[in-house]
Design goal:
The chain has 81 residues and is of the alpha+beta class. 38% of the residues lie in helices and 25% in strands. The chain has three helices and three strands. Strands 1-2-3 form a three-stranded antiparallel beta sheet.
């Protein structure tokens, strides 16, 4: 299984490489937007720009991204950072 030790900036960088665009920054949180190219489904993902994102927050980010499997999502982030 992949790591669960990610910084917010690492998560943002990976998501941006896969089509999420930076919409705005509010305080120390980046707000990213994504529109699925085939279905038009829109997602908004908020990522704290902390040095280490806590486990519960990481789970919330995965849910916002539409991940069905948290462990697989973490492995995917780990693989692409």
């Amino acid at each position: 299984m992949g790591s669960r030790d990610f910084s917010g900036r690492e998560i943002v960088a990976v998501l941006q490489r896969f089509g999420y665009r930076h919409d705005r920054t509010r305080g120390d949180h980046a707000v990213l937007k994504y529109t699925h190219p085939e279905t038009g489904e829109k997602r908004t993902v908020t990522v704290p720009l902390h040095d280490r994102v806590r486990l519960g927050t990481l789970q919330s980010i995965a849910e916002q991204c539409g991940a069905d499997d948290f462990r697989a999502w973490c492995a995917w982030i780990d693989e692409h950072r």
